[in-house]
Amino acid sequence: MAPEHIASLAQEYGITFQVTPAIESDLRTVGATEPLIQTLRGLTPKIVAPRPIKQEPAAPKPIRQEPGQISQMWHSFGTLHDFRVQITNDLFHAEWVNIPLADARQGAYIRTDCRRKGAKWVGLSSANMAFPVRRVRGGKDTKYCKLTLQFEVDSVSPEKITGHAESPKKLDANKCHMSQTTWGEFTWVPIE
After folding, report:
1. H or E element: which one contains 110?
2. Would you state the pLDDT for residue 56?
3. CA dihedral in degrees (134, 178, 110, 96; nearest 10)?
4. Domains recognised in the chain with CATH numbers
5. Cβ pair 17, 192 in contact under 8 A
6. What pTM was estimated for this model as a whole?
7. Whole-number Å distance between alpha carbons of 171 and 146
8. Phi, psi of 12 (to 5 degrees)
9. How many other CB atoms sit within 10 Å of the CB of residue 145?
10. Based on CB atoms within 10 Å of each CB, which residue in 92, 146, 152, 168 is the most buried?
């Protein structure tokens, strides 16, 4: 996503994190431009209350809270999504929580479940996301597609979660068919 587009979205919807020197460093690492960082610095963080997530019958169940478990809200720089993350022993679970109301009404979700493999967590994200489709007489409409994509968490610390995830590169939204995917890095920071 272009830095100008991220800046525009941040101005329109707001941000849920403070741009600290550590976060600024992370932003630069993932390709943020100086104008984007200046835009983010000028915004006042807001806390967004999580919206209820419509449960699908085949969706994975949330992991129970246990002593010593990390459970926290995290913000993604790349997608501007907020996630509730739970880590228990060798399991990593994340759910998208700041789903726009119109998408939530259509059953949109992103749920990620991973198991520890060596020093990282490896698993899958299941999602029901909106994609643009062409109408017969021109113009565009939206169709929700259920996708399953690979997801890997490389590191978790109190300051950030980093990793890389698969995403659609070529998608026929009319048929909800992915013919090609790509991998991209992500950085999540805690919402304070």
Report:
1. strand 109-117
2. 45
3. -60
4. 1-46 (no CATH), 50-190 (2.40.128)
5. yes
6. 0.62
7. 12
8. -75, -45
9. 19
10. 92
